């Protein structure tokens, strides 16, 4: 290849590189799309299992509200019996690090800090209860997965037989 051809090839490659969004830009666009996919109204069923093995069937409703790099999920869950609880999940995405951070608050006294990252349509968050929690449990993992027709929320304790396990399958309304 002559020097003139090499220079043209190099210039063409440089222009193609500049015309394509960078990896960080693609990830930020993906995160914005993921957050906006959680906006709206969702309802469905689930199960809350206590460490002792007892479980409750739940009916839940959530509203997702996204604004820029922030998302809030406000929900309420109830059982056929008297039990009822409200849940608020607040998240923010840091485009510089690609990580998510936020809080989980539940009306019966659970307060946790959240931090983690997204892989595809799944956001995996470390769930660490604060001193503000009424009945602190060991660390857990909260997963929010966007599915074709809704959202799945799961909470799993890191220590077998301790803490609560939550499984919710919510459909878009």
CATH architecture descriptor text:
Beta Barrel
**Number of DSSP strand runs:** 10
For the CA atoms, what is the radius of gyration?
Answer: 21 Å
User: Would you identify the CATH H-level superfamily?
Assistant: Calycin beta-barrel core domain
Q: What global shape is seen?
A: globular
Strand order of the largest sheet: 1-2-3-4-5-6-7-8-9-10
Distance between the termini: 61 Å
Largest sheet: 10 strands, antiparallel, barrel
Beta-strand content estimate: over 45%
Oligomeric category = single chain
Average pLDDT for all residues: 83
Structure class: alpha+beta
How many domain units?
Answer: 1
H and E string: HHEEEEEEEEEE
Write down the CATH topology.
Lipocalin
Number of helical runs?
2
At the first level of CATH, what is the class?
Mainly Beta
